[in-house]
Design a protein that fits this description.
InterPro entries: AAA+_ATPase, ABC_transporter-like_ATP-bd, P-loop_NTPase. It comes from Acidovorax cavernicola. GO terms for molecular function: ATP binding; ATP hydrolysis activity. The structure is a single chain. The chain has one domain: P-loop containing nucleotide triphosphate hydrolases (Rossmann fold), CATH 3.40.50.300. Helices cover about 30% and strands about 25% of the residues. The N terminus is likely disordered. Helix 6 links the parallel strand 7 and strand 8. It is α/β, with parallel strands linked by helices and about 210 residues long. The longest helix is centred in the last third of the chain and has 15 residues. The structure holds adenosine-5'-triphosphate. The site of adenosine-5'-triphosphate has 11 residues, from helix 1.
Length: about 210
Amino acid sequence: MSLSMTSSVSLQVRDLHFSYPDQPALADGWSASIGEGVTLLYGDTGSGKSTLLRVLAGMQQASAGQLHAAGVALDAEPEAYRRQVFFCEPASEAFDQLSVRACTDLLGAGDAGFDPAEWQRLVEAFSLAPHLEKQMFMLSTGSRRKVGLAAALASGRPVVLLDDPVGALDARSIHGLWRAIERRIAQPGRAVVVASSERITEVPLAACIELPLG
Ligand SMILES: Nc1ncnc2c1ncn2[C@@H]1O[C@H](COP(=O)(O)OP(=O)(O)OP(=O)(O)O)[C@@H](O)[C@H]1O
């Protein structure tokens, strides 16, 4: 089912509720229209950034509310919804036995808009070239994160969710990350949600969502 909405809205959140058992709600009737460009999901440690990204990715179920990504409803078409959104858990061990190349292939599977040239630029910017044939478990925490970030920023999916993307990155890679985000948002119809406990000054923000949600 498609939603009638302006094409600039990439992610529509309506009346979303989420709480872990016996804990205060992280979202209690949250609505938002996330459009093109960079949206900062800003909040302190433990304010719910990672959880809300998982909910937006369609990987963690909210107790109520509706989500649409690029006009596709999560409840009506969950697989199609997830194909609109790129989200890779930074600490995931799911890819441990795969090589960096195989992991990237998996993250880009079914993504007709995946941009190999952009991925190669990120491999250079993140100094990943010597690691491409290594298995993921052999990589440092920072390099593992770079593999996910390179796949995210080369992805053709309209919505990309990044959880604390600068965490564990060296200065050169951080520079490469922001330049790649700039290239991405220069293209129409692309939204990047960055969850962070730091303000962002490196790229212009389309919007900022502050946690806890009011
Ligand atoms: N699986 C879980 N079960 C129960 N509570 C959880 C679970 N995961 C997270 N929490 C709690 O939910 C709250 C939000 O956690 P979350 O990891 O989403 O916050 P965050 O803003 O991403 O934090 P950080 O900046 O440290 O990554 C915290 O109080 C956390 O302890």
